[in-house]
Amino acid sequence: MSTDTDSNTAESYTLSKDEMFELLKNRRRRDALRYLLEADGESTLSDLAERIAAKENDIEIRELSSAQRKRVYIGLYQCHLPKLADAGVVDFEKHRGDVERLDAADQLDPYLDVPTSEDTSETDAADTAGDTDPGADAEHDERSPATPSPDPRPRRSRVRSTTATTSRLTDSSRA
Prior knowledge:
By secondary structure, this protein is mostly helical. 45% of the residues lie in helices and 6% in strands.
């Protein structure tokens, strides 16, 4: 991976709580960090994308479609891995597709609770729900609900306000 032997042995940067929360708020970033932890700290982008896509779609890697792989690959390549690299928790060789976990990622480990096979909580389903949308790899948190909650305030009729505006315009044009 990295030819610089000092990259992992240098004194690690301490992440602020805000930085940690920002990195961990996205399910794919958590999955990438978790996989790197389980894979002894190194992976290729292709392997990482396949594992995450299989997990998100709840299927075996061999059953993945090209579109499912590509969607996760692009999200990792363009957004999630560069963000983790900028924070100093991974080394991402964009042109080679190599990903290496750095010592600073140890600070995030307590929040990556490696799930058991029985761990299928509702929060996990909610966290990945937004990632099924091809445009969900944007910088925004994908956990927002698909449909907005109803507004408790009564709505005014747009017809009445449009009619009032139209009658005012008609009256002013007659004058």
